[in-house]
Amino acid sequence: MPSLDVVVKEIADEMRRRTERGEVASYIPELARVDPAAFGIAVIDATGNIAVAGDSETPFSIQSISKVFTLTLALGKVGDRLWRRVGREPSGSSFNSIVQLERECGIPRNPFINAGAIAVTDLILSGHQPREALGEILRFMQFLADDPTITIDKAVAASEQRTGFRNAALANYMKSYGVIENPVEFTLGVYFHHCAIAMTCRQLAMAGRFLVHAGLNPSTGARVVSSERARRINAIMLTCGHYDGSGEFAYRVGLPGKSGVGGGILAIAPERASIAVWSPGLDAAGNSHLGRAALEALTKRMGWSIFGA
Amino acid sequence: MPSLDVVVKEIADEMRRRTERGEVASYIPELARVDPAAFGIAVIDATGNIAVAGDSETPFSIQSISKVFTLTLALGKVGDRLWRRVGREPSGSSFNSIVQLERECGIPRNPFINAGAIAVTDLILSGHQPREALGEILRFMQFLADDPTITIDKAVAASEQRTGFRNAALANYMKSYGVIENPVEFTLGVYFHHCAIAMTCRQLAMAGRFLVHAGLNPSTGARVVSSERARRINAIMLTCGHYDGSGEFAYRVGLPGKSGVGGGILAIAPERASIAVWSPGLDAAGNSHLGRAALEALTKRMGWSIFGA
Amino acid sequence: MPSLDVVVKEIADEMRRRTERGEVASYIPELARVDPAAFGIAVIDATGNIAVAGDSETPFSIQSISKVFTLTLALGKVGDRLWRRVGREPSGSSFNSIVQLERECGIPRNPFINAGAIAVTDLILSGHQPREALGEILRFMQFLADDPTITIDKAVAASEQRTGFRNAALANYMKSYGVIENPVEFTLGVYFHHCAIAMTCRQLAMAGRFLVHAGLNPSTGARVVSSERARRINAIMLTCGHYDGSGEFAYRVGLPGKSGVGGGILAIAPERASIAVWSPGLDAAGNSHLGRAALEALTKRMGWSIFGA
Amino acid sequence: MPSLDVVVKEIADEMRRRTERGEVASYIPELARVDPAAFGIAVIDATGNIAVAGDSETPFSIQSISKVFTLTLALGKVGDRLWRRVGREPSGSSFNSIVQLERECGIPRNPFINAGAIAVTDLILSGHQPREALGEILRFMQFLADDPTITIDKAVAASEQRTGFRNAALANYMKSYGVIENPVEFTLGVYFHHCAIAMTCRQLAMAGRFLVHAGLNPSTGARVVSSERARRINAIMLTCGHYDGSGEFAYRVGLPGKSGVGGGILAIAPERASIAVWSPGLDAAGNSHLGRAALEALTKRMGWSIFGA
């Protein structure tokens, strides 16, 4: 097997030379300011070795990648009752589509489209103040990444809150069906803020390790979730993690993964590695263009696809 | 690790005791005559050992499972040009939905919904007579299963041809967009006939081995497809193999799989096992109820999920 | 021709005897309290004679009927620029569908579905405080009905504001496309309040006269709108005035009309009569059950259908 | 009131000078050969006077205008049972959309979209040979127009039959729901042929007179349909006669009308006039561009709008 360190460096070099990088997301004004040439990668293998390259220490807005962690947290709180509010099928439509909600009585297709993630946030919020719920989510990220310095980028959160009319439409729509319990502005406030968590590739790869290790945090041996739940979260990442580019990601990369419009992707090679990549340019489906290319190259060279050698 | 033989027997016993078995498909009159209590399973592990239980030697109509093999055959003939005619994203809708076609200019979402499989059949047919194309598909199945006795159930094919108006609607619709090249009745004729191939669980598990072994037929060592193509077919089975129950199958079973309305499911544990199950009762999404339950039990006990230990 | 007075009395008697009355709208709690047995009718013919029967002097919540008047007012303010924000085709879907908005970039199909009426209200609001805009709408109704006592039922407005999540979803959705200019809560506030205007059948029939008389208010001879605009508003009422029951209303009644979930219907027989009916029980499409039945009987006996003798 | 003869000549002159004429339909090869500069008009007033101008004696393919007459014929045969197979609401979508059928269990929205007209043709066919049913439709047209020379353009019918895959999709789809009773190819054969009836503006205006005169054929005094049925057919023409341009036609022209992709429009001014116009260039919704412009000018100058003076 090739050396992980060498492969990671080579891939970062290749990505730096690419000219086609996609488009930086512009619908959240704060996100549009990021350097489009940035590229970072961090890979932590099963033994805990970490290989990094490029802008792996630059914090970026994790955006929808946070949905993996809010799903994990919500399942811990309410268990499989969560699935009364959210489905787990790929949606076949874009991340912010409202059509599917109308067809299916306000129940979002899965927890990784915006509507589903808002419903999950609402479950975490229940019985708490928004500030408390947000604190809990942030502490969970810090715990998983073993790094108490992770913070929320308030400028990004405020930017989303000012412009997030489509998410407000989704939340109000679900509220009309009783799928959202808390006041819409509370749920959206928590949602916009957890999407605005800023992390580096290294921090994000650290946070993903429990999904590699059957639910255990390998730093401490603490169980985060059961092995069955870890497998199931991976399964949802594979089928639903890239909106209507999920099939393409499975086809090309062959790993469970979750992307964010900030240009990050967290990918999990079960029992092998936790991987975070970041490059702000997005493809038409809203997923990091170079990020996916880097992951495709990585799984190919390392033989990490879950679909066979 | 538990003994595969023992596990397979136990699962067959459990399934026999279950009372909730789903509904046998009634829309194809011939299929409605099958014994609803039937259950068969066959598992071939990486070393070639085979474990069977129940009605593993009873032939059943493989129906949509044939789509895995026609996709493989068509990719061999036209390569990645196939993807100009068919997408590879989960559809988020039922197996015979026509709505998606209207939204996307007649291009089916993936090769495993009916419209996509008809488009794939049309590619295999091109330049040939229907009889020749059908012969080629059947011989391919016989070769993969290493069994020249596999045949087409003509009564089932005729039954579908008489009643397959919805498939005729899909084919004509694609024809109006130029996605189908051959006369609609020719393409449909081949399609209905390859869906009517009858196989036993043992034969089907044999035929699936190349997807376990990185594209090689382990009987002969012959390469069926490249290792990359085998991984990619597995990826499409995972994301699209169970219509709008694909997310659920990934979540519960954790293996690439393809179901048919005849009640069969082919599942692939890469590098580990080729698995065929059969039980005619279907769930609401049109997938074998006991089949999926059996696969869920099997992967759990054997630790075969692709999503982690 | 039969005497209008006699016909109106007979119809009121018939309606009183009917047992099938539809269901009172329950989604706005305040509206659910109304007497389900109520029935009122008022008809003002071309010469200004007025015939009334039943509960013609009981105020009811005009709800969506107000959309005819806000459309008229907005056209007076911004002219045909209004049609950049709103279409004028029947929607083929229910009054509060959001699917159509997603397909058509946030532009509502017509000014009489909720989304379209909210967009019209937003145009009236522009450059004003909500209180001013609402005052203008109310004064316009008072002027048309020649009755300064018409008021807004604040309990109904507050009830809608507390529960109008689906309308909030529509407004936020349009805001995300820039179709709504004012703060969503301002626009919705004005919308909920003008829907909560309370009027009697007599007042409503009075207010509709300008659409009978080619745009003139016959009390004063004042021109409300041009004759062409009056015809066009009538045309939109005919094709879009009853949501996905518009075709049925045209088929059975044969007059331009606009219904509200409060159970009222305003119908216009051009050059012949302005008609208001009220009965709170609604049919499946959300239109007054007895109201439509009464109008069907009235146009038949009076020979008032616009589609021929 | 202006002289009808003068107005008709003026309008024809105006239309001849227009440069923007829309696009001739190309999806039926035979139709694409017609002269794009053609324009014809024929108006028969209530007293039977006829005013013609332009290419009023040139036969053109009436296409979907035939649906008005097949609806009339089918209502005569099966009465209101027809409405079990077809709705009467505007569809909010294009003439050949299949989406609506999937949402509503194979029941077409109205008799004037293609699916609905095919279902109506199937009702006329029942119990007959295609040749007989077609003969009956043609004789009905000849009787209404008082002209036995009207024929079917077999080249157009054959052209549609070779290329009408989308209509075949609609018919097969409805067949899968049992909405079509006869063999699909029989029903489509009759449908394609009655759409290929060729008529001049004069003939078409003659054929429409029974809808002006409360169901009576004024030549003979014979009752074609009851006055109620005539009104109702007019109502359906108004709400559904121009596909998703129906609202626009009602708004601009203000008359019940039915268009065909051959560029013809039949419009009815109840109790006043039967009007046929023809110009082959179509707008985006598939309706004659100059045809609608001519009708808009005509109703304005003659004061014929059903929505008021």
The helix/strand series of chain A, from N terminus to C terminus, equals HEEEEHHHHEHHHEHHHHEEEEH
Tell me the quaternary state: homotetramer
Q: For the record, give the distance between the C-alpha atoms at the N and C termini of chain A, rounded to a whole number.
A: 12 Å
- The CATH level-2 architecture of the largest domain in chain A is identified as 3-Layer(aba) Sandwich
Strand order of the largest sheet of chain A: 3-2-9-8-7
Structural class computed from helices and strand pairing of chain A: alpha+beta
As a whole number of angstroms, the C-alpha radius of gyration of chain A is 18 Å
Q: What is the CATH topology of the largest domain in chain A?
A: Beta-lactamase
Number of strands of chain A: 10
Morphology call of chain A: globular
What's the CATH class of the largest domain in chain A, please?
Alpha Beta
Strand content of chain A: 5-15%
Q: Which protein chains are joined by the largest interface, and how many residues does each one contribute?
A: A-B, 41 and 41 residues
Kindly state the mean pLDDT of chain A as a whole number?
A: 95
**CATH homologous superfamily label of the largest domain in chain A:** DD-peptidase/beta-lactamase superfamily
Number of domains of chain A: 2
Number of helices of chain A: 13
Largest sheet entry of chain A: 5 strands, antiparallel
Share of helix of chain A, binned = 40-55%
Give the low-confidence spans of chain A.
none
